[in-house]
Amino acid sequence: MGGTATLIAVFYGVVVLISIGVVVAVAASTISRGPMDAVKAAHRERNWLFIVIALLVVLLFGTIFFIPYGKTAGRNAQVVHVTAFQFGWLLSQKTVRENVPVEFVLHSQDVSHDFGVYNAKGVYQFQVGIVPDYTQKVVHTFKTPGRYDILCLEYCGLDHDSMQASLEVVP
């Protein structure tokens, strides 16, 4: 797992533990300790609502900066235009350099597709959905040279399984 993925996994783990603590605290606070007036109960519920909202905002801001979409590749980027069609991929170039950001500019000629990239060992690298009449962009930096397989990960018709291509990453 990469550094960013590890960071996000740890962050989500911490949020899950905090969430369990909040659930336990809410359950403990709702145990009847005698009569409670409606105003006090409403304040308690409002306080728990604010706590949950605060946790969700922390989770959002803790992870949103690691999402790969919307990033630009910079001036030195390699740009690969990709056209998806039933049942194939058309790439403007099939060779890119390692450690240089690659901006994939993707669009579909017909139906929805999903651009999934795997290394030669079959390990998932990234994916992005592509819908007709919309150009999708994603930036990825390949750290290791070799052949990368491109597969369609969304069922797009009878020959969906034959929708494959490859990209060569060179030093």
Short overview:
The protein is of the alpha+beta class.
Give short descriptive properties of this protein:
171 residues, alpha+beta, 2 domains, 4-stranded mixed sheet, 31% helix, elongated
Account of the 3D structure:
The protein is an alpha+beta fold and 171 residues long. The protein contains two helices and nine strands. The strands form two sheets. It has a five-stranded mixed beta sheet with strand order 3-9-8-5-6, with no helix packed on it. Strands 2-1-4-7 form a four-stranded mixed beta sheet, with no helix packed on it. Helix 1 (3-29) packs antiparallel against helix 2 (38-63). The chain is elongated. The model has no long low-confidence stretch (mean pLDDT 85).
What is the topological layout?
Blueprint: H1 3-29, H2 38-63, E1 78-85, E2 88-91, E3 95-97, E4 102-108, E5 113-118, E6 124-130, E7 136-140, E8 146-152, E9 164-170
Parallel strand pairs: 1-4, 3-9
Antiparallel strand pairs: 1-2, 4-7, 5-6, 5-8, 8-9
Helix pairs in contact: 1-2
Q: Would you identify the regions where 5 or more consecutive residues have pLDDT less than 50?
A: none
Predict the CATH topology of the largest domain.
Immunoglobulin-like
Q: Mind telling me the CATH superfamily name of the largest domain? A: Cupredoxins -  blue copper proteins
Query: So how many helices?
Result: 2
**Mean residue pLDDT:** 85
The span between the termini is: 22 Å
Strand segment count: 9
The description of the largest β-sheet is: 5 strands, mixed
- Compute the CA-based radius of gyration: 23 Å
